[in-house]
Amino acid sequence: MKTSVDRKKLEQLYNRYKDPQDDHKIGIDGIQQFCDDLTLDPASISILVVAWKFRAATQCEFSRKEFLDGMLELGCDSPEKLKAILPRLEQELKDAGRFKDF
Asked: How many structural domains is the chain composed of?
């Protein structure tokens, strides 16, 4: 179900959100911008689902690897593509086996 991902576009997207003090992560301000671009409340279950899919190790931040690998795995290179698949990702929580992973 993965679609073709434009890696250059994905890098530009990461650069939009990355922490100005640390090129290796997206911090709280970048997460807020990411949520704004997705029109998501940062406290919503949806952003937690995204963090789960990105395999984020730390709350309120994504490492460069987590963000890029997560977006690649989901087949997304834009907030619009990610927003389009969020309902499907949220449905996965209804699967007991996947919910345990969450």
From this structure: 1
Tokens 């395999």 correspond to what residue? 55
pLDDT, tens digit (0-9, with 9 covering 90-100), for 62-72: 999 999 999 99
In a domain, 18, yes or no: yes
Task: Specify if 102 maps to a domain.
Answer: no
Report CA dihedral (26, 5, 70, 91) to the nearest 10 degrees.
120
CA atoms within 13 A on the CB side of 25: 13
Specify the CATH number for the domain of residue 23.
Answer: 1.10.238.10
pTM: 0.88
Question: What does the CA dihedral 20, 25, 29, 34 come to, rounded to 10 degrees?
Answer: 120
